[in-house]
Every structure is written in structure tokens, then in C-alpha cells.
Please model this.
Amino acid sequence: MVIEELKKNCIPRHVAVIMDGNGRWAELHGNDRIYGHRQGVDAVRSIVEGAGEVGIKYLTLYAFSTENWDRPKNEVNALMSLLVDAIVKEIENLNEKNVKMHAIGNLDSFPSDVQLKLAEAIEKTSSNTGLNLILALSYSGRWDILQMVKQIVSKAINGEIVEKQINESLIVNHLSTSGIPDPELLIRTSGEYRISNFLLWQIAYSEFYFTPILWPDFRKENLFEAIADFQRRERRFGKTSEQIRS
Ligand code: IPE
Ligand code: IPE
Ligand code: MG
Model:
């Protein structure tokens, strides 16, 4: 798949990715799971580049879920150091590519060095105007909905909002993705067909793309293929095909 084959006027603004299959990739290559996670960074670099090239405005990557804390301690620790290393190493490259970094999730749950490096990277890329790269870290869709409910309830108790002001846009404005449009396209690698508690509210009308490719093998050409598939679909939003075509 080459970039020239994509319709320029139909590029999703926001693509979300469940980067799955690092462990199985490592096993296939006779190595430990950590090795698979390390190789996954090359895939991230490639799709960040590809996303910029096709003009995607928001790319959200599910890097660590709330549930991933329950993995063996050595794997969690390795993921933490890999995260810090990758952020520190890639920051210059991200700046050159005009990428603005963001993070969503329960960031307070991370060790302080991870929080610090993350905050630094966000700060150093804050004036960039190209691709918005959103890392979902210690993230889950239910966590997001829960923290939104807590914020709204506390504002209601303080008298800042009244019941009739509670509508969809109020909810959207209190989710961690506030200000970011919903993803038009959600990609999951590794042949699993589930959401695993990723964005829940936000994917109400997303198109899903599943591929058997394991994350460390995923490259920007595969992203372009997913976009081409997206472009062949008819998004009806509850209407009839006839209504959409007229
Ligand atoms: C995805 O790969 C990375 C994270 C969840 C952090 P996995 O580690 O889940 O790889 P598999 O699913 O075991 O192959
Ligand atoms: C989803 O992958 C989370 C991330 C990619 C960060 P998992 O590998 O954790 O999902 P399950 O447990 O197989 O559903
Ligand atoms: Mg997995």
C-alpha cells in the first residue's frame, strides 16, 4: 500500500491503536516478552511518521492499560523503564517532526521518574503544531468514565452545575480526551477482536480494523492499508445508505 493511493480528502482526523502482540512476537523469535516490547518501539516510530505524512491530526496509542498493572512485576518494571528510555530518546525526533505529545490515563499511578520524563516531553513538544500524539498510559475506558463522573458530581455538589446542564457535551468536556475529536478509526493488531477497556465512550461510532500482524511487525504501510480499508466503508450513523449517498 502506498500513500499516493489514499484519498486525500478522506483521511481520518483521529486514529486510535491497540498495540497488541509484543509477547507473542517475542516468543516466535525465541526471546523474552521484554524483547518484544522493545521491538514495539520501532513500530511506534514508523506509524508516528506515517500518521504525520498522511495528515492525521490525532494518533492515540494504547501503551499501558489499567489491567496491565496485574502483569508480573518484572514485566511492569521493564515496561516503565522502556517507556522512559523511549520518551527520552525520541523527543528530538518528535520535535523535528513537529509532533505534540499528550498523555491520558491515571498518570499519578506511575513512579515519579516516569511522571517527570513524561511531563518534560509534553512540555518540550507543547508548541508543536503537527500531529498530536496521545499516549494512553495506565488508561482504561471505565477509569475515564469514572473520573468524569467524579468531576461532574463534585461540581454539582459545589453548585457549579445544575442537573439540566448535564448533557453529552458536558460529559465529553470532562473525559480525559476533552478537546480531541472521537476516533474515526480504531486499529487492533495481533488478531484479537476485543476492546480491552480502551476508549469506551469515544468509540461509539468508530470504524474497527483488526489485523493479525503482531505489533512489532506493524509499519506505516500497514497503517495506510487500514486507512484505505476505512475509505472503502460507508459510515451511516444510523441513517440509510440512500440518505448518505444523496
Ligand atoms: C501489547 O503486547 C503491549 C502491552 C499490553 C503493554 P502484549 O504484551 O499484550 O503481547 P501479547 O498479547 O502477550 O502477545
Ligand atoms: C491491551 O492489550 C492493552 C494494550 C495494548 C496496552 P492486552 O494484551 O493487555 O489486552 P488483553 O488482556 O489481551 O485483552
Ligand atoms: Mg496482549
User: Anything to note?
Assistant: Residues 192 and 210 are 7 Å apart (CA to CA). The first strand starts at residue 14 and ends at 18. Residues 18-20, 62-65, 67-68, 192, 194, 196 surround IPE (ligand 2) (CB under 6 Å). Helices lie at 22-28, 33-54, 73-96, 112-124, 141-157, 168-174, 220-231, 241-245.
